[in-house]
Specification:
Oligomer: heterodimer
Strand content of chain A: 5-15%
Number of strands of chain B: 14
Strand order of the largest sheet of chain B: 1-12-11-10-13-14
Radius of gyration of chain A: 25 Å
Largest interface: A-B, 110 and 132 residues
Helix content of chain A: 40-55%
Largest sheet of chain A: 5 strands, parallel
Strand content of chain B: 5-15%
Number of strands of chain A: 13
Number of helices of chain B: 21
Largest sheet of chain B: 6 strands, mixed
Number of helices of chain A: 21
Strand order of the largest sheet of chain A: 11-10-9-12-13
């Protein structure tokens, strides 16, 4: 018996004890296991070009896709508004999943309600669920706004949110003038980034275009302000704070739309804050008057930006700007649109990032990378790698489309370091597995699920993306701005140095190269 | 902090009753009436806890419950390691439940084991409009080609499947025939069915009955010689290795475990279970259905057991042994004796640090009662508990064997109610799920996730009890909980408390 009170062994060590190992070996006979030689043969076969070809010929099955569904993005966007309760119309299990998913990444509470539709609602529609649900949520959680989105169940049976909300208000669920914006967010269209887009557009449409016919449409009176949209982002806490810091440094009048940087980073001080921070409803409405709206993530905001442009604003979009050039472009755009000068402090911050890159680039230069994630994230990271002299080889985005592929290819074509890179829209991590076996790279950049690829293929994983479940607190630091670029550089360097140390730490074999200075 | 120790039972009862009344005030009248049936104070001697259960959740209240898909794919089927489980429908359900339940297994993942892979049909609009059966047909072919060592496939239906009229049973039958009798199991666990995960467990159990037991061939299985001491572990999902730290005790007492349902389980083990002499059932809620079926169909008796904490473990070992001869009965005593020094050492180390501490629980199917004994072994007291998806038979077991007089009971509790209860009762520890964890930690209340063991475990068995004790101690006695108030604010908050 290995267990003891003095040194308690948990799952990490307990089962390595010979008693357990013998027990598990004996269990095998009941499992009717495959012949180990056959397992080995198939394992090796999955590493081949032949397997890769079959794998890429898949037409119907997805294995380990790197995307979630629309309502997750809708919930993420909705909590970025002042005292806003996301309300997802449909089955309740979905909401349990979104809340868990967000909590596992941010290590924060995630508040959201469901209309808890069941079989009878599937037959008769979910109007009663909406009516009761809005009344209950309103009374219990005292929100200032309830932002409605849908699960696929409500979409398949065709529930009409606009009509349901109107009827609920007539029945007194919430006051007639209470804000209940909505968005249809079917899980079988697009991904979580589509849901972000739909929900945000739904909220802006609500405030700008007459609250579903219950108020006059706002008339735009242009001012000098800039709206910022972050998009679906695992680093929203660090990133939005960094963007706000930059805007304040530049003295630009601004509104961050869907600002969830506070609600996903509340203090532990004895009080649970269900709502915290967020774009005020007044600011959301007044955002119509802004001079321009900047989206940090084009593919998260396609419909929203079109909607904003139709209201007469300039729109500018970025693709998850990480690193020097992308941040330069962002800062210059801010200055151009606002007419404000770029303060010396930002030039200093830029200089420090250049300094860091110059100090360390020898270690990154020429290293080969695979990247996967949301389309904008992939673009931003690939662009940064190119300016570090690193070589992206595989860029894969399950929720990337043809237009994304073309834009990625144009970026890669623009750099001598991008020539060896292929772009894979609509593919999943089982495809990535084949790529890593048949065309190996030095490092993989991706979310937590990349650890399975790291284990299978031996490609060291640099965790950047969403979700990150198995490392803590990285979302609190920005990856945008010059400071964010430095953070990303450090993440990459740390892994590179760790790998060199791992390769050279065999006593008596590689006492050389195990350097104290690198 | 423990209010319970300073008050009489009558006082506690009155306080809890008052608390329930207060909480109900927030609701619109109709909702208050409905919720009132789910909240109560346990009265000693009653046959159940005095609450209604297994009833639809109320819209908009922030229920903590999940769905039938979660109960089938996430709980019952997902851990069967050598089968591929397709999340059939849109991408989300499979994504959110991907690898997060910690059903440990031994195998070559992606080659002969598939638990931590996310297989999905990733439905698009055209699949909703034109139906997904053809896509499913093709998916089964692609799985066969790319994962040739799978021993079977299950189709875990997501909401749209039942709404668009797909015939996954017909596809399963046809493809099974095409692949020479391969086990392909369609599961109708659409998320809108039933009121919680619970119906998903039942549907999954029925799918085993119909599509595994219903297709057993007469010969060839099982591929081992039966013994009089063969048992199956039913309803242990091997979270953090729970089934392993249980199995080791059963084998030490002389039994032979021929199947694990379903943690670290395999299709062959499911198929062999009708040869067991006794089914021992840990999670009654999720697998009583198949146990009852096996009793009726194959004449296999089943017995419930509880491997949390030494008191319940010893009681359970003896109960299980009661079904066998003296050799096993002596084996049970030998096991209890063998682990006594470990138990004593664990209690000696941790009980003084945990004595008198109060706990509030809100978990799933068995833990709201099953873990109470383990806390009591450490001198802790459970002052409130409730089930996410329990039925009345769970509350009966709770009332008759576990909770103390005047314990606060909350069925299908929601965010609002749970926060108010904890705020008022100020327990030293809350044990619940990921959605609750950070809420209570923000409030300064120590917390352990009691679904996933907060990424620790195992908690079952004697080895598990040591980990349980360590974890509860590190939660309750973490120095961080003394630091939640800024020193310059501490004075004013003390004043507030004194004024209360």
């Amino acid at each position: 018996m290995a267990q003891s009170a003095e040194h308690v062994l948990d799952h990490v060590e307990l089962f390595r004890d010979p008693e357990y190992q013998q027990m598990l070996a004996k269990k095998k006979i009941f499992e009717n296991p495959r012949d180990p030689a056959e397992v080995e043969r198939i394992k090796e076969w999955t590493k081949t070009a032949e397997y890769r070809e079959k794998n890429f010929a898949r037409e119907a099955l997805a294995v380990n896709p790197a995307k979630a569904c629309q309502p997750l993005g809708a919930v993420f966007a909705s909590v970025g508004f002042e005292r806003t309760l996301p309300f997802v119309h449909g089955s309740q299990g979905c909401v349990a999943y979104y809340r868990s998913h967000l909590s596992r990444h941010f290590k924060e509470p995630s508040s959201c309600v469901s209309s808890s539709m069941t079989e009878d609602a599937a037959v008769f529609g979910g109007l009663n669920n909406m009516t009761d649900g809005l009344a209950n949520s309103y009374n219990m959680y005292k929100p200032k706004m309830i932002a409605v989105s849908t699960t696929c169940m409500a979409e398949v049976i065709g529930d009409d949110l606009n009509a349901f909300i109107k009827t609920s208000k007539e029945k007194g669920s919430v006051p007639a003038d209470f804000d209940v914006p909505f968005a249809h967010t079917p899980a079988f269209v697009g991904s979580h980034i589509t849901g972000y887009d739909n929900a945000l557009k739904g909220i802006l449409e609500h405030f700008w275009d007459g609250k579903a016919g219950t108020a006059p449409k706002l008339e735009r009176k242009p001012n000098g302000a800039i709206n910022i949209i972050g998009g679906f982002d695992g680093y929203t806490v660090g990133n939005l704070r960094e963007i706000k810091r930059i805007l304040e440094l530049m003295a630009i009048d601004h509104t961050v739309l869907a600002d969830n940087s506070e609600v996903f980073d509340t203090p532990t001080d004895g009080e649970f804050r269900m709502y915290e921070g967020g774009t005020t409803l007044e600011d959301a409405a007044n955002a119509i008057h802004a001079k321009a709206t900047i989206s940090m993530q084009q593919w998260c905001t396609e419909k929203t930006l079109t909607f904003v442009a139709e209201h007469g604003q300039d729109i500018v979009s970025f693709n998850y700007p990480v690193g020097l050039s992308a941040t330069d472009d962002f800062i210059v755009a801010l200055s151009r649109i606002s007419g404000k000068e770029i303060p010396e402090q930002l030039a200093r911050e830029r200089g420090r990032l250049v300094d860091a890159i110059a100090d360390s680039s020898a270690h990154v230069h020429g290293k080969k990378f695979a990247i996967y994630g949301d389309p904008d994230l992939c673009y931003g990271l690939a662009a940064f790698l190119l300016e570090l002299g690193a070589e992206p080889i595989h860029v894969l985005s399950t929720n990337g489309n043809k237009a994304w592929q073309e834009k990625m290819q144009a970026l890669l074509a623009s750099s001598p370091f991008g020539q060896g890179c292929q772009v894979y829209p609509g593919r999943d991590l089982w495809h990535m597995r084949s790529l890593l076996f048949t065309e190996p790279v030095d490092f993989l950049i991706g979310n937590t699920y990349g650890k399975y690829l790291e284990r299978d293929t031996g490609t060291p994983l640099i965790r950047i993306g969403f979700p990150i479940f198995d490392r803590h607190h990285h979302h609190r630091s920005p990856v945008w701005g010059y400071q964010g670029g430095l953070n990303v550089l450090v993440k990459i360097l740390d892994k590179i140095f760790d790998e060199i140390d791992k390769k050279t730490n065999v006593l008596g074999k590689t006492d050389y190269s195990f350097d104290i200075i690198r | 902090m423990s209010l319970a120790t300073t008050q009489s039972i009558a006082e506690i009862r009155a306080r809890n009753k008052e608390l329930i009344e207060e909480v109900l005030k927030v609701y619109p009248e109709k909702t208050a009436k409905r919720r009132a049936k789910h909240l109560n104070v346990h009265q000693a001697g009653k046959s159940d806890c005095g609450v209604k259960s297994n009833i639809k959740s109320i819209p908009g209240v922030m229920t903590i419950r999940g769905c039938a898909y979660a109960g089938s794919k996430g709980v019952v089927w997902g851990p069967i390691k050598d089968m591929v489980h397709i999340s059939h429908g849109p991408v989300g359900c499979g994504q959110y439940s991907w690898g997060s339940r910690r059903n440990y297994y031994v195998g070559t993942t992606g080659i002969d084991s598939f638990v931590t892979l996310q297989f999905t049909s990733d439905f698009q609009e055209k699949d909703i409009v034109f139906g997904g059966d053809k896509k499913l047909d093709k998916i089964l072919d692609e799985i066969q080609e790319l994962f040739p060592l799978n021993n079977g496939i299950t189709i875990q239906s997501e909401c749209p499947i039942g709404l668009i009229g797909d015939d996954i049973e017909a596809v399963s039958r046809a493809k099974s025939k095409e692949y020479g009798g391969k086990t392909i199991v369609p599961v109708r666990c659409e998320g809108f069915r039933g009121v919680s995960q619970s119906l998903g467990h039942h549907i999954a159990n029925d799918a085993v009955r119909d599509w595994i037991f219903g297709h057993l061939e007469g010969d060839g299985k099982p591929k081992f010689e039966p013994t009089p001491y063969d048992v199956a572990i039913i309803g242990d999902y091997n979270i953090g290795g729970d089934a392993w730290s249980s199995r080791i005790l059963l084998e030490e007492m002389g039994l032979r475990v021929i199947a694990q349902w379903s943690g670290d389980g395999s299709l062959a083990e499911l198929e062999a279970t009708p040869k067991a002499k006794l089914n021992i059932l840990h999670c009654y809620r999720s697998m009583n259905y198949i146990s009852r079926h096996m009793e009726e169909k194959f004449g296999i008796p089943w017995c419930e057991y509880n491997f949390f904490g030494p008191s319940k473990i010893a009681e359970s070992l003896r109960r299980i042994a009661g079904y066998f001869d003296d050799k096993i009965k002596e084996g049970a005593e030998r096991v209890i004796e063998k682990y006594e020094p470990l138990v004593n050492a664990v209690i000696a180390k941790y009980r003084p640090r945990l004595e008198g501490k109060t706990v509030m629980l809100y978990v799933g199917g068995l833990r709201p009662r099953h873990v109470i004994g383990a806390y009591e072994d450490l001198g802790m007291e459970v002052i409130g508990t409730g089930y996410e998806f329990g039925h009345n038979d769970d509350y009966q077991r709770t009332a008759q064997h576990y909770v103390k007089d005047s314990t606060l009971i909350y069925d299908d509790v929601n965010g609002y109610e749970f926060e108010r209860f904890v705020e008022k009762l100020q327990p030293d520890l809350v044990g619940s799920g990921i959605k609750e964890k950070y809420v209570f930690q923000k409030m300064g209340v120590p917390f352990r996730q009691m679904h996933s063991w907060d990424y620790s475990g195992p908690y079952h068995g004697y080895d598990g009890f040591a980990i349980f004790a360590r974890d509860m101690d590190m939660a309750v006695n973490s120095p961080v909980w003394k630091k939640t108030k800024a020193p310059w604010k501490e004075a004013s908050s003390a004043k507030l408390q004194a004024a209360e």
